[in-house]
Design a protein that fits this description.
Elements lengths: L4 E4 L3 H12 L4 E5 L14 E2 L13 H8 L6 E3 L4 H14 L2 H28 L11 E5 L2 H14 L7 E5 H7 L9 E5 L3 E2 L3 H14 L3 E4 L6 E3 L2 E6 L2 E5 L1 E4 L5 H5 L9 E12 L9 E3 L4 E6 L2 E5 L2 E3 L9 H13 L2 E4 L5 E7 L6 E4 L6 E5 L5 H16 L18
Parallel strand pairs: 1-2, 1-13, 2-9, 4-18, 5-15, 13-22
Antiparallel strand pairs: 3-8, 5-7, 6-7, 10-11, 11-12, 14-17, 14-19, 14-20, 15-16, 16-17, 21-22
């Protein structure tokens, strides 16, 4: 089979790009080893975060670092056995998290995050999935006024040059919007413009269905069989050779495995995360996602219940799951709102693909004709899937890209 473009990876990033290219009239083969949306894209907090321009930095407070080193904070965990493997990424992450580095990443992030709501709106409309994009934003709640005030100072400083809407709520204002939250929280910042989802996998599947309806093909295959040929690129999928002049690597945390033998250093780390769904007690409900800021987890209203999502676990991508963070945050969540038992027996685990500067890799491969990259979106794969789909779609089809792709090149690390 011969296509115009091969897209390797059927997460939300790859599937959104495949749909975008199909909408532009290109024939596309989407190569996935399982089913679209079944890996990292399955387990996120369901947020399309137009406000999240500032990156998550590596902490520099010595007392906080000591707490992390002793695994005392629910928001973070690490595997002692994997320290040597993850240390090089953590060192680069630390070095990139200067104030200057954060501002540089924020400036590069701004065009992508500004476009994220419109671009998902465009793709969702094409897929008949606009109703999945739940308006209302999300809430960052605080258990102490001192922490809320410090966050407001930081927010005003960081976002001074960006036009982003938010509301500041005291305890009464917060409970007027979310009546089933307890008085454990004293105030909050309500980010009003983002979308949220009650089933992230369902959005990926909706994009995949529309992609197929437009003539695209979802192929079961192994991206590691990628081969450069005289007229482009080929992989083995559905038991045969499939090829195209252009090929996009959108494999998330597995991208370095493919690119390392091709001579590309991809200094990616993973922040593993967990989720479990809780049944609300009685008539308790939650209207929008709520982050318990001082503990470090999120409660999200989902189709299967209230999803508790953990912070970051620093471990090798393929190490055994250790959902200790879920066990540690559950009592705090029960304190926040009335919750009954867990829906699943075992928490789900996924790996967020993070570059040291918390900026994605998107655009042309530096040394191979017809090869393109679209990975490393860190905590924002869902958010940036639409923005990066448009960027790559315009570049691959020879249109003028809506923003300069230079900041997202892998070449920035060489």
């Amino acid at each position: 089979m011969r296509f115009d473009v091969l897209v390797l990876g059927g997460g939300i990033v790859g599937t959104a790009l495949a749909l975008d290219l199909a909408l532009r009239g290109r024939s596309v083969g989407l190569v996935e080893r399982k089913s679209p949306g079944g890996e990292t894209s399955f387990g996120n907090a369901g947020l399309i975060q137009s406000e999240a321009i500032m990156p998550y930095p590596f902490p520099r407070d010595p007392y906080l670092l000591l707490q992390y080193a002793l695994n005392l904070k629910p928001e973070a965990n690490y595997h002692l056995a994997d320290v040597l493997e993850v240390a090089p990424f953590l060192w680069r992450y630390f070095r990139a998290s200067t104030r200057e580095g954060q501002l540089r990443t924020a400036a590069a992030n701004a065009p992508l995050f500004r476009a994220c709501l419109d671009e998902h709106g465009r793709l969702a409309k094409a897929a008949g999935a606009e109703a999945m994009l739940r308006p209302g934003g999300w809430i960052k709640a605080f258990r102490s006024k001192a922490a809320l005030d410090a966050y407001l100072d930081e927010t005003k400083r960081d976002l001074a040059h960006f036009s982003i809407d938010y509301d500041v709520l005291d305890g009464d204002g917060l409970r007027a919007r979310e009546p089933h939250l307890s008085d454990a929280v004293v105030g909050a910042v309500h980010w009003t413009t983002p979308y949220s989802l009650n089933d992230p996998e369902a959005l990926t599947l909706a994009y995949a269905r529309q992609f197929v309806a437009l003539g695209g093909r979802i192929l079961n295959g192994d991206a590691m069989t990628l081969n450069e040929e005289r007229d482009g690129w080929s992989v083995t999928a559905d038991g045969q050779r499939v090829s195209a002049p252009d090929c996009v690597v959108a494999l998330g945390p597995w991208s370095p495995d493919l690119l390392r033998p091709m001579g590309y250093e991809v200094p990616m780390g993973v922040k593993r995360g967990y989720h479990v769904h809780m049944r609300p007690k009685g008539n308790a409900s939650l209207g929008v996602p709520v982050l318990d800021a001082e503990v470090g987890y999120m409660m999200v209203p989902m189709a299967r219940g209230i999803r508790l999502t953990s912070g970051a676990e620093f471990a090798a991508r393929d190490s055994r799951p250790t959902p200790a963070q879920i066990d540690r945050i559950e009592p705090f969540a029960r304190e926040m709102m009335p919750l009954d038992g867990r829906v699943e027996a075992q928490p789900w685990m996924g790996s967020r693909p993070c570059m040291p500067d918390m900026l994605c890799v998107a655009g042309r491969a530096p040394r191979h004709k017809g090869l393109w990259f679209n990975f490393g979106h860190a905590h924002h794969g869902l958010t940036l899937a639409g923005s990066c789909a448009r960027l790559l779609g315009e570049m691959i089809t020879g249109e003028t890209p809506y923003t300069d792709p230079a900041p997202y090149s892998l070449a920035r690390f060489n």
